[in-house]
């Protein structure tokens, strides 16, 4: 009887010592879930590419706009310089000096006033 009890205790200890194996839980996706997942990944990829493409396009357009603004400013400066030059060249004194240089004389009786 004592031998049976000892044998039962040994068996209980062995049972307690052996770790229980965890069963792996296999997760299976249904066809609908797979389709939704693929659609979501495709949409995320498409949106990412579209956003990057739009940002790239906006960067180039902004760069072109800045270059055009710089060109416009340079042209406006040239126009202003030319306007000042025209004003300087069209003074009465200069025209009179140029006319005398070319041998023309001023006839006060032949002057006609033109108004704008």
UniProtKB/TrEMBL annotation:
<dbReference type="InterPro" id="IPR011922">
    <property type="entry name" value="Cell_div_FtsL"/>
</dbReference>
<dbReference type="GO" id="GO:0043093">
    <property type="term" value="P:FtsZ-dependent cytokinesis"/>
</dbReference>
<keyword id="KW-0132">Cell division</keyword>
<comment type="similarity">
    <text>Belongs to the FtsL family.</text>
</comment>
<keyword id="KW-0175">Coiled coil</keyword>
<keyword id="KW-1003">Cell membrane</keyword>
<protein>
    <recommendedName>
        <fullName>Cell division protein FtsL</fullName>
    </recommendedName>
</protein>
<comment type="function">
    <text>Essential cell division protein.</text>
</comment>
<keyword id="KW-0472">Membrane</keyword>
<keyword id="KW-0131">Cell cycle</keyword>
<keyword id="KW-1133">Transmembrane helix</keyword>
<dbReference type="GO" id="GO:0032153">
    <property type="term" value="C:cell division site"/>
</dbReference>
<keyword id="KW-0812">Transmembrane</keyword>
<dbReference type="InterPro" id="IPR007060">
    <property type="entry name" value="FtsL/DivIC"/>
</dbReference>
<feature type="transmembrane region" description="Helical">
    <location>
        <begin position="26"/>
        <end position="46"/>
    </location>
</feature>
<dbReference type="Pfam" id="PF04977">
    <property type="entry name" value="DivIC"/>
</dbReference>
<feature type="coiled-coil region">
    <location>
        <begin position="58"/>
        <end position="85"/>
    </location>
</feature>
<dbReference type="GO" id="GO:0005886">
    <property type="term" value="C:plasma membrane"/>
</dbReference>
